[in-house]
Design a protein that fits this description.
The complex is a heterodimer. By secondary structure, chain A is an alpha+beta fold. Chain A contains 19 helices and 21 strands. Residues 1-8 of chain A have low confidence and may be disordered. In chain B, strands 1, 2, 3, 4 and 5 form a 5-stranded antiparallel beta sheet that branches. In chain B, a hairpin with a 5-residue loop joins strand 2 (26-29) and strand 3. Chain B: It comes from Gluconacetobacter johannae.
Chain lengths: 565, 112
């Protein structure tokens, strides 16, 4: 953050922070630094072992088939200009598509090392980068996809997400933590960010004397899934950075570095005990120079001033016109039921663009689709685009009287699947088709399931059912938090899939429990169908799959899967 | 290299693989010591001697423009090399979710 941040830009992008010249100069220097590092790697001046941490600091992995570049989308928000640049990169440097991730980022799977400096330069030209998308640093801060729009929101968390981004980027103490560190922030009492499954989860809300935060710590997935501890309530805004600094300092000091599998903060919090961890944080917090770390309201205001604000002035009959369009078009009505979210402003609504077409690859979008989304965001939602951790896209501020026109345009681009929150809205990591860490393929299972349950009426009948698939125990596909989780495992070089039931990422956060022995790939989709059949038979009126499972327990579902085997 | 990707059985056969430094694409050590984008051009080694081959190849990886050299066990019952694990079959033949990217289709047989 520079002194220039005190000046309000003329055309600040709606929904995210507008860079200033200091930000841009920094990114330019960073790109040139990486260009030199790549040149030294290609010449042999840097070995692969020397180069690897440098490329990872710039989001560049070496995956199964090629290099993969993960581009940061801070708090999941970008604008049309940036989305068009992503489309250009997909078209020019990759294979015409990108993949949106569960951290609201996008990754390209077929990147050439020698092209990467030019790609980063193009990203920098639209105020984007790949920093904090890899390595043992504080990663991209994630946020509610309906932030600043949702009717249930108490406070727009994006300004504080940006403050955390600026605090954490190149933080000298926190660039080499024991392991990666993930923060999520929400301003809604309804957890849509999986706050309890993050290293730190924050829920912002109005307090008696300004913004305050509820703080969760030590949650996470991976090989040791843990629901985070509720560390404290009502952390004052002015202490936000100091307290988080104390939390991460304690982790940095006491977190294990001798064992990669025990290095996350969740292990530390469990090892110390929540109370002992809290005492250490409080002691660190008390010893800090609080004036130095204070987050004054003027700074918050200066950051807020660099966010563009949409002018929400829908005509008074917007809601009536939407109702009329719904009555006239059953398919549109179905899509509105599943793919929209109530907006705080009269006459507006948030629209979710599903990236989960029937039989498709969750989270993938072609360059043409990225361009279409950019165009539609400009026409219908102030040029603002949000990526959800569920691997979908949100247009946050759509006039209700224009929603039908938006839906028709989406349909023409293959982007109008009506399945948000339903069985077709599957999270899946890239899995063994791309990822060098994976044990099994995630995408084909997701494709078969979404094809099996493609019927929109069937999906609506089944109702709220979240399937989440990870190709390995690192759990990038959030399988622990799936109502039905699927984990790919390796058995002597062949793929098997372990089912878990009862997970949830919301306020009722829970870790799914293993149902039974892992299944071969060709039995997994049938097993899911048997689970759904059992649920439909035994549910009570209006009962979600998760609640039926909680009410009846695992035995019924275990029989449904294994009794026939 | 992760042990699970580098496991071999005595008496079996393997090929040697790496990623190309410039673009990360998968390559296989061919009969003439060059690297090929096609597994069907790979030289087949007995597992008895492959560790020495891997060591020697890894020592010249910078000169060869490759990274991450390791060995891949193949099935004994096929005329062309087919890795025994799903992971290595996907590396050899391309992502299963994009048949249009199938390696043996993309890389012509006369192009290394």
């Amino acid at each position: 953050m520079s002194a220039e941040t005190l000046a309000t830009p003329d055309t600040a992008p709606v929904g995210h922070y507008a860079y200033d010249q200091v930000d841009r100069a920094f990114l330019h220097d960073r790109v040139e630094q990486f260009r030199d590092q790549v040149a030294r790697r290609l010449s042999g001046a840097l070995s692969e072992d020397e180069f690897k941490p440098l490329r990872l600091m710039n989001g560049l992995y070496l995956q199964l088939h090629a290099y993969m570049l993960r581009v940061a989308i801070p708090y999941g928000i970008l604008d049309s200009r940036q989305m068009r640049e992503l489309a250009h990169i997909a078209r020019t440097y990759d294979r015409d598509y990108g993949h949106f991730t569960t951290r609201q980022n996008i990754q390209f799977n077929w990147i050439r090392l020698e092209d990467t400096p030019d790609i980063l330069a193009r990203l920098a030209a639209v105020d984007m980068h790949a920093i904090q998308t890899s390595g043992n640093c504080i990663r991209n801060v994630t946020c509610d996809q309906f932030a600043g729009a949702a009717v249930d929101e108490l406070l727009d968390p994006r300004v504080h997400a940006e403050i955390l981004r600026q605090w954490s980027t190149l933080h000298p103490e926190f660039s080499f933590l024991p392991r990666k560190f993930k923060i999520a922030i929400s301003g809604s009492p309804h957890d849509r960010v999986a706050a309890r499954f993050h290293d730190i989860g924050l829920v912002a809300k109005p307090g008696r004397h300004g913004t305050v935060f509820d703080v969760f710590v030590g949650g996470g997935m991976g090989r040791t899934p843990i629901v985070g501890v509720h560390l404290r309530d009502n952390l004052p805004e002015e202490d936000l950075l100091a307290y988080l600094e104390a939390m991460v300092r304690v982790y940095n000091e006491y977190g294990r570095r001798d064992n990669i599998y025990k290095a996350r903060i969740k292990i530390l919090v469990q090892a110390l005990g929540a109370e002992a961890y809290r005492e250490k944080v409080d002691a660190e917090f008390a010893a800090m120079d609080r004036a130095r770390y204070r987050l004054p309201p003027e700074t918050v205001a200066a950051i807020r001033a660099r966010f563009g604000t949409p002018v929400l002035d829908a005509p008074s009959d917007a809601a009536d016109r939407l109702a009329e369009a719904r009555r006239a078009d059953a398919a549109f009505d179905r899509w509105v039921r599943t793919n929209t979210h109530p907006h705080r402003a009269a006459g507006y609504i948030s629209a979710v663009i599903s990236l989960k077409p029937d039989g498709g690859i969750p989270g993938d979008a072609t360059s043409a689709q990225l361009d279409t989304i950019a165009d539609l965001a400009e026409r219908f939602s102030f040029g603002e685009i949000r990526i959800s951790h569920m691997q979908n896209v949100v247009l946050g501020h759509v006039r209700q009287d224009q929603l039908h026109a938006l839906w028709r345009e989406l349909g023409g681009a293959g982007l109008a699947s009506a399945n948000i929150g339903l069985i077709g809205d599957i999270i899946a990591c890239p899995g063994l088709d791309y990822c060098s860490l994976a044990n099994a393929r995630s995408i084909p299972i997701a494709q078969k399931l979404s094809a099996r349950f493609a019927n929109p009426a069937l999906q609506e009948r089944i109702g709220d059912l979240q399937i989440k698939i990870s190709g390995c125990i690192n759990a990038c596909g959030h399988h622990h938090a799936g109502h039905i989780g699927i984990l790919g495992v390796d058995k002597k070089g062949e793929e098997f899939f372990q089912l878990t039931l009862g997970g949830s990422a919301g306020n009722d956060a829970a870790i799914g429990q293993i149902l039974g022995p892992a299944l071969p790939e060709d039995a997994t989709v049938d097993a899911i169908a048997h689970l759904v059949d059992a649920y439909l038979v035994h549910r009570t009126e209006g009962e979600r799959f998760l609640d039926t499972y909680r009410r009846l327990g695992a035995a019924l579902f275990k029989d449904a899967v294994y009794a026939l085997a | 290299m992760d042990v699970r990707n580098n496991r071999r059985q005595a008496g079996g056969s393997s090929v040697v693989t790496a990623n190309r430094l410039l673009d990360g694409r998968i390559v296989w050590l061919a009969e003439d010591g060059a690297w090929s984008g096609r597994i069907d051009a790979a030289r087949i080694f007995s597992n008895d001697g492959i560790e020495a081959v891997i060591d020697a190849t890894a020592r010249r990886q910078q000169a060869d423009g490759v990274v991450g050299v390791y060995g891949v066990q193949i099935s004994d019952d096929s005329t062309t090399p087919v890795p025994v694990t799903v992971r290595e079959r996907i590396r050899a033949f391309g992502p299963t979710v994009h048949p249009e990217f199938a390696t043996l289709t993309e890389v012509p047989s006369d192009v290394r």
